């Protein structure tokens, strides 16, 4: 049997675990509190591509090993973000050339996190401990966020003289609203899991790290029990509706269902209803 892309995926800082139709993507650099260094930014899109290409996977949980979800960007390892100051032969680079290099690197980091948002499968974040800076960028790219009671969130960049540039400022207005985001981003303050739930950053708060992982996996399994065609179609329609009028969104979903409604899963749903049993969906 040919190994799947998930089986062959290898990373020093990420790991993939599959149980039935649910994949867990682990941030796996606990000794560094899952700080996001070069390997993270390179490997995250590869991990999401591997998960997305596996037809049996229907939902994804993003979780972290160790005491913290992530303390964000590894500032030491990623100190070259501002770009090189000289060419290979030592000639100084112009400010424009340095800026172009820095911009290209920022766009690469943005694309890495966007690979989570662009995954066709529902993605649930299971957050515990610190979720700071780039950690917030990552969970903002997920569809659903759950947290343990000890979770601490911070859009920390202004405290280290950076404008957050990997997605928080763009995605969080649609999640928590402009006012809450402005407060968090301008102050760089820490907020508790209780405050995060109050402002809608997380859907629910679990007692501890083990509980939030169990709750996220249970939710993922509940999602995976539904028709994958319908779930993935719902995610696509929700995404397409962002920034569009209601009329445009309705037009889009009409076209979507015209193409995908007549499925084996729909027939199975109707049969299961008549027979008073749960549906068993194949995604066909």
Question: Key features?
Answer:
284 residues; alpha/beta; 2-enoyl-CoA Hydratase, Chain A, domain 1; Lyase 2-enoyl-coa Hydratase, Chain  A, domain 2; six-stranded mixed β-sheet; three-stranded mixed β-sheet; 12 helices; 46% helix; globular
Strands, total number? 9
Named CATH architecture of the largest domain: Alpha-Beta Complex
Element pattern in H and E: HEEHEHEEHEEHHHEHEHHHH
The third-level CATH topology of the largest domain is 2-enoyl-CoA Hydratase, Chain A, domain 1
Low-confidence stretches: none
What gyration radius follows from the Cα positions, in whole Å?
21 Å
Task: Describe the fold and architecture.
The mean pLDDT is 94. α2 packs parallel to α3 (95-117) and α10 runs antiparallel to α11. The two termini are 23 Å apart. The protein has helices spanning 5-8, 38-52, 95-117, 134-140, 168-171, 173-176, 178-187, 193-198, 209-224, 228-241, 246-260, 264-275, and strands at 14-19, 22-27, 59-64, 123-127, 130-132, 144-148, 152-154, 191-192, 204-206. The longest helix is centred in the middle third of the chain and has 23 residues, at 95-117. The chain is of the alpha/beta class and 284 residues long. The strands form 2 sheets. A 6-stranded mixed sheet has the order 1-2-3-4-6-9, with helices on both faces. Strands 5-7-8 form a 3-stranded mixed sheet. β3, α3 (95-117) and β4 form a beta-alpha-beta unit. Helix content is 46%, strand content 14%. The protein has 2 domains: 5-224, 2-enoyl-CoA Hydratase, Chain A, domain 1; 228-275, Lyase 2-enoyl-coa Hydratase, Chain  A, domain 2, CATH 1.10.12.10.
């Amino acid at each position: 049997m040919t190994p799947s892309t998930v089986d062959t995926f290898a990373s020093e800082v990420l790991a993939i675990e599959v149980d039935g139709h649910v994949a867990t993507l682990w941030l796996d650099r606990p000794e560094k509190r899952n700080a996001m260094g070069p390997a993270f930014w390179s490997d995250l899109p590869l991990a999401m591509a591997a998960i997305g290409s596996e037809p049996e996977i229907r939902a994804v949980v993003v979780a972290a090993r160790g005491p913290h979800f992530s303390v964000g960007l590894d500032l030491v390892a990623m100190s070259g973000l501002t770009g090189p100051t000289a060419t290979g032969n030592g000639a100084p680079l112009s400010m424009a050339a340095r800026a172009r290099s820095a911009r290209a690197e920022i766009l690469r980091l943005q694309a890495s996190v966007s690979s989570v948002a662009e995954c066709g499968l529902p993605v649930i974040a299971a957050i515990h401990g610190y979720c700071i800076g780039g950690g917030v960028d990552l969970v903002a790219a997920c569809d659903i966020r759950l947290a343990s009671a000890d979770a601490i969130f911070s859009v920390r960049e202004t405290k280290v003289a950076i404008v957050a540039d990997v997605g928080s400022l763009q995605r969080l207005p649609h999640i928590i609203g402009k006012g809450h985001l402005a407060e968090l981003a301008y102050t760089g303050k820490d907020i508790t899991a209780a405050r995060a739930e109050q402002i809608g950053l997380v859907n629910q708060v679990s007692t501890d790290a083990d509980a939030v992982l169990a709750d996220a996996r249970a939710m993922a399994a509940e999602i995976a029990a539904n028709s994958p065609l319908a779930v993935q179609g719902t995610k696509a329609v929700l995404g397409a509706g962002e920034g569009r009028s209601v009329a445009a969104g309705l037009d889009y979903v009409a076209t979507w269902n015209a193409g995908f409604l007549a499925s084996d899963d729909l027939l199975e749903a109707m049969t299961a209803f008549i027979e008073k049993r749960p549906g068993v969906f194949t995604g066909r």
